[in-house]
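User: Need the bound-state model for biotinyl-5-AMP:
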Amino acid sequence: MTTTDIDFTFCGSTLIGRSIRSLPVVVSTNNLLKAEALEGIAAEGAVVVTDYQTAGRGRLERQWESPPGKSLLFSLLLFPGDSAGKLQLMGLMCSLGVLGGLTEYSQMTNENRGIPIDKISLKWPNDLMVEKRKLCGILSDAGVDKKGRHFIVVGIGININQTFADFPGNIKNIATSLQLISGKTQYRGLILKSILRRLEKYYQRLKQEGFDWIAAEWLDRSGLLGKKLEISDNNGKIHGICTGLQNDGAMRLSLTDGTNKTIYSGDVI
Ligand code: BT5
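Assistant: Bound-state model below.
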């Protein structure tokens, strides 16, 4: 499968995805768009999508692995105002956008796509999971361009048509794809458009209402409130019960010793 199965005609958005660039191969869509944003040569809402990344990145310089043509790998450029402290929220908003877009795509009427949407869950801070296997990862990078404008590049990697054989050994047991959960080949172009349309709605809402709804909506959709969580961060592992998210997206935990803790970054295990 190549980029030819991604139809990049207008996706119906006025901002997110009004300019979509499709490249067969790049180092990393985040690196490319961030470099352009720093130079001030990419417009708000610009999207770069590729078939293959030679050095796709996860958080903390981890690798994002994907064989050519099997995934949806894209980045988008946002100008959410002063971006200090907004990275986490943009990731949360985009994970809601991915879930909403996948839901819309799965309900397109002319064909049963076979995707069990109710099995897809949100994992803090911004993964989409199916039964403990990762379907989608999101990476947000912040910067300030030459004109002093704060920007955020959000990179999204979704496993679409991988079989187990396509995953390298180190992630075979922790990854899944839409094909694996549906038993069907899926259409990356349609999925991309559905996600961009959903992100457009969320981004317009953010521009009108501000940021405060994002964490609340994410928490509601995640079903994590009151759940026992184990989170690893720089200081080790922490166990606690989720008592909510702060408006900036940080996780609030009630620990077994009765104290409360706020976690700004880490991985739910
Ligand atoms: C992420 O990091 O999950 C963010 C991934 C973002 C990838 C997109 S693709 C487009 C854009 N351009 C980029 O260069 N990146 C973005 P993190 O939470 O740190 O998870 C990384 C970990 O996920 C790795 O250490 C592996 O364990 C695992 N992993 C790597 N590739 C995977 C895959 N295809 N599916 C599931 N898990 C994977």
